[in-house]
Specification:
Blueprint: H1 24-33, H2 37-68, H3 86-105, H4 112-125, H5 127-175, H6 180-185, H7 188-230, H8 232-239, H9 242-279, H10 281-286, H11 290-342, H12 348-390, E1 410-419, E2 425-435, E3 439-444, H13 450-455, E4 465-470, E5 473-474, H14 480-484, E6 487-490, H15 501-506, H16 514-523, H17 527-532, H18 550-563, E7 568-572, H19 580-594, E8 598-602, H20 606-611, E9 614-619, E10 622-627, H21 629-635, H22 638-653
Parallel strand pairs: 3-8, 3-9, 6-7, 7-8
Antiparallel strand pairs: 1-2, 1-4, 4-5, 9-10
Helix pairs in contact: 2-5, 2-7, 2-12, 3-4, 5-7, 5-12, 7-8, 7-9, 7-12, 8-11, 9-11, 9-12, 11-12, 16-18, 18-19, 21-22
The structure holds adenosine-5'-triphosphate (ATP) and magnesium ion.
């Protein structure tokens, strides 16, 4: 058997468009389930045991009772020889099987028919013993059936679980390959829904499919075999309605898949709205927009409710419709069977057995009718999972990517153009050379392209035109690892994780010792406030660091950048003003750190700008001025105007 928790499913993305044919996801799921073929086969084996014990129970207990309580017609002296005697019938059947065996394998237990007869007569002598034996047999078969059922259900159910958890892992692995742009386009609710709701739906669908699809058809076949053996013509009348049932199920299933698909979309929409509201709760409350948000969620839930109700309707209709059609068949059967008994073709015992076999088929058929709905549910949700597994990232590492050596000389933007939407350029013809060890301050109005400029360096986006080189090498030919390892990027919003302060600074790298983490915290002037926290470096900070102040968050982000000791530091200064003490601490931390290090700062603080070797002024994606602070002030151009407004503003604020 496969070892459950370590099985790695080879779920590979497929090179296909987002157009999924109805069953392709299903076959992919089946293909994945095939990796658990031993479980599948074992589960099939137990299904056979279940069905066989069902069949044995149906045939054997009834036969024993019939043989035991058979009353020979008084007129016939030699009751043993009567062809109507069920014991004689059974012995004849066994003899018939013996003949076949002898023909096929050249051997048969030839004394068996006689033994059957003597056993039967023995039972007739001691009726109480026979009944006890029949009950014992029934008990044994029931225990066998229940144990097999448990094992079958566990094995088959676990396949579904392994397949879905494997899907989740594959989805996340591929999600991590997506570019930053992908995450800026997709709402987090949409992404979350695929990992929670969609996966859950695939799972609950598959569980049922594997458990029932393996067990119920075998049951149907066993009962069918029993029924056909008793009277095949009558049986065919009884099951003549099956094609109609099949047609009904298929058409309901189609509608089901559609509704599931739509409701999954609605759930993702709902997740998006809820997620937005929670993230922006401070704004919602300060604008007293709670009612408005409740209304928005109500509308989303209303749309969802519509499709959920449609699913319920279809689900509710499936059972009764199937049953009704099947019962029609049984009514036909009863009508004809009366005639068969009357003409002496069947005896009452046969009829009862036949009736039971057909009636017992109802249950598995009804369960199978549900299976189709489950299959459709898992297809609809698996479609959405596979869509995430198959997404091709828009920023890819080139197939012959090389390790980028540590930066020693220059970073160059060569006529770089970039557009987010293909129409408006966020960066336009940027040509600039940044020397190793130089500190550049990027300034410009909001929306002028400063953040975009720095996002091209770690390849969050690729230029739409031109190229960026490190020491003359196009960064598109470098491995992600070797490029990004050289860059520390402190973003405009300080991103922290709901973990300990230590892991926020070391960020998943075990190679950093505690001493190194402390050193980085000290360099970022964060050690004082960390030591004041109840558990120091082990303090778990709230989600996104919500339990810390803005300045503290920023210093932690800087400590994280420092510990990496990067060749290139990118700092997108937070625009929100910090208190003077925080600002002083951050400034001191940076002063030390940027000395002799290639640094690009998107500067809002005058102190940062003064320290820069060169100031680059951006306007609508173009570099319009550059030079030292004195040069730009002397130029009396765009920078001077920017400087004056900011400087006056800062002065006014204090
Ligand atoms: N993810 C995005 N998708 C589409 N357009 C974007 C995206 N990010 C930025 N833009 C657009 O690109 C232009 C440049 O944005 P950018 O974020 O680089 O400005 P900025 O100079 O950093 O501004 P700020 O000082 O406000 O941070 C703007 O017009 C902005 O609307
Ligand atoms: Mg910005």
């Amino acid at each position: 058997m496969n070892s459950p928790s370590h099985t790695k499913l080879p779920i590979t993305p497929r090179d296909c468009s987002s157009d999924y044919s109805a069953w392709s996801s299903y076959f992919r799921l089946v293909g994945l389930a095939w990796h658990f073929k031993y479980r599948l086969l074992l589960s099939l084996f137990f299904s056979l045991i279940i069905a066989a014990s069902f069949g044995a129970m149906l045939v054997s207990v009834g036969t024993i009772i019939r043989i035991t309580f058979y009353e020979a017609p008084a007129a016939i002296e030699e009751s043993a020889a009567s062809p109507a005697d069920p014991a004689v019938k059974l012995a004849k059947d066994v003899a018939g099987i013996n003949d076949t065996m002898r023909r096929m394998i050249g051997w048969a237990p030839s004394s068996l028919p006689d033994r059957v007869l003597s056993l039967s007569y023995g039972m007739r002598e001691n009726k109480m013993k026979a009944v006890t034996f029949a009950s014992g047999l029934a008990l044994f078969l029931t225990i066998l059936m229940s144990s097999a059922r448990f094992l079958q259900e566990y094995l088959a159910g676990s396949i579904g679980t392994h397949v879905t958890t494997g899907l989740g892992e594959a989805m996340y692995a591929n999600l991590m390959k997506q570019s930053v742009g992908f995450f800026e386009r997709k709402s987090s609710g949409e992404v979350l829904a695929r990992f929670t709701n969609d996966i859950f739906m695939v799972n609950s669908g598959l569980q049922g499919v594997f458990v029932k699809l393996m067990r119920e058809p075998i049951k149907v076949l066993v009962f069918l075999a029993v029924a056909l053996h008793v009277d095949w013509q009558l049986t065919l009348i009884g099951i003549g309605v099956l094609p109609l049932v099949l047609y009904l199920l298929i058409s309901i299933g189609k509608k089901m898949r559609n509704s599931v698909k739509r409701s999954l979309q609605k759930i993702a929409g709902l997740a998006t709205v809820v997620n937005e509201t929670i993230k922006g709760i401070a704004i919602v409350k300060s604008f007293t927009m709670e009612e408005y948000e409740i209304g928005r969620v109500k509308a989303e839930i209303g749309r969802l409710r519509k499709f959920l109700l449609r699913m319920i309707t279809l689900h509710a209709a499936t059972g009764p419709l199937t049953e009704f059609t099947l019962v029609l068949g049984i009514i036909g059967f009863v009508l004809v069977s009366g005639h068969r008994v009357e003409t002496g073709y069947l005896d009452a015992g046969d009829l009862v057995q036949l009736y039971f076999a057909l009636a017992m088929m109802l249950d598995p058929v009804r369960k199978l009718s549900d299976v189709n709905n489950m299959i459709q549910t898992s297809i609809a949700s698996a479609d959405r999972c596979f869509e995430f597994i198959d997404m091709v990232p828009d920023i890819l590492e080139s197939s012959d990517a090389e390790t980028l050596p540590a930066l020693t000389d220059t970073i160059r933007f060569e006529n770089v153009t970039f557009s987010y939407d293909g129409s408006k350029n966020a960066l336009d013809g940027i040509d600039i050379e940044i020397k190793c060890g130089e500190m550049i301050a990027l300034v410009g109005a909001s929306g002028s392209g400063k953040s975009t400029f720095v996002k091209l360096l770690p390849r969050f986006y690729d230029p739409t035109g031109g190229r960026i080189t490190f020491d003359g090498k196009d960064i598109r030919n470098a491995t992600f690892q070797s490029l990004r390892e050289q860059i520390s990027y402190v973003t405009q919003e300080n991103i922290l994780f709901a973990e300990s302060i230590r892991s926020n600074i070391a960020f998943g790298r075990d190679c950093y010792t505690d001493a190194r983490v402390r050193e980085a915290a000290t360099a970022a002037h964060a050690d004082l406030f960390i030591d004041d926290l109840p558990e120091g470096f082990d303090t778990i900070i709230g989600e996104s660091g919500s339990s810390l102040s803005g300045g503290q968050r920023q210093r932690l982000a800087i400590a994280r950048a420092i510990i990496k000791d990067p060749a290139l530091l990118i700092l997108d200064e937070a625009t929100s003003s910090l208190d003077t003490e925080s600002e002083r601490l951050i400034q001191e931390a940076l002063d030390q750190f940027v000395k002799g290090r290639t640094t690009i700062v998107i500067a809002h603080r005058l102190s940062t700008i003064q320290q820069a070797d060169r100031i680059v002024v951006l306007d609508e994606g173009k570099i319009i001025e550059q030079g030292s602070l004195e040069e730009l002030l002397a130029l009396n151009g765009a920078y001077k105007r920017l400087h004056d407004t900011q400087f006056n503003f800062s002065k006014g604020e204090q």
